[in-house]
Amino acid sequence: MRGWLARALGWPLASRGRLERVDAIVVLGAPLRPDGRLGPVLDERVAAGVALWRADVAPLLCFAGGKTRGAEVSEAEAMAAAARGAGVPDAALVVEADSHNTYENARNLARILLPVGRDHVVLVTQPFHLRRARLHFGRAGFRTAGHVIADSVQFRSPKGLRWVLREYPSLVRDFILYIRF
């Protein structure tokens, strides 16, 4: 029941965009487990990003996310290590390890990617987070598409409904707080 409700309430948040060849795949961070390993949310995001990279959607695979409290490595570094373990070469990786929220992900990656002409990105995160992520990346100067993970942990986890319900006020808050860069 919760999975169905999370899917129904999350549908308006799952902003897509037409998926085509882009300049970069951007995988957004989330907290690491206390032992520094990727949890199910990040595992899913990394797997989706690597799959898109293998499908030649983009030449670059970017990971964004700073250090979770008490962690020894950043979310981005942990995700990049997992991608390397899946066979992605260092030359294809971009690691942005200083951001702590979606606004900072967009702002910091804009400083890295836009000066070199990489303005068209596909965003990888759970479906409930896509609309807000596209809002921030669009405001930072990117053309975006959102990759919807069809059978996301968002729909299987007991926490999924809570994530979806928490996203609505976060979207309103970010729209008000970050109206301009």
Q: What does this molecule look like?
A:
There is one protein chain. This protein is of the alpha/beta class. The chain has one domain (2-177): Rossmann fold (3-Layer(aba) Sandwich). It contains seven helices and five strands. It has a five-stranded parallel beta sheet with strand order 3-2-1-4-5, with helices on both faces. Helix 1 (2-10) runs parallel beside helix 7 (160-177), helix 2 crosses helix 3 and helix 4 (102-113) crosses helix 5. The radius of gyration is 15 Å and the shape is globular. The mean pLDDT is 86.
Would you summarize the structure shown here?
This protein has a single domain (2-177), classed as Rossmann fold (3-Layer(aba) Sandwich), CATH 3.40.50.
Total domain modules: 1
Look at the structure and name the CATH superfamily.
HUPs
Q: Give the biggest beta sheet.
A: 5 strands, parallel
Report the structural category.
Answer: alpha/beta
Helicity range: 40-55%
List the helices and strands and how they pair.
Elements: H1 2-10, E1 24-28, H2 40-54, E2 60-64, H3 75-85, E3 93-96, H4 102-113, E4 120-124, H5 130-139, E5 143-147, H6 153-156, H7 160-177
Parallel strand pairs: 1-2, 1-4, 2-3, 4-5
Helix pairs in contact: 1-7, 2-3, 4-5, 5-7
Notable characteristics:
181 residues; alpha/beta; Rossmann fold; 7 helices
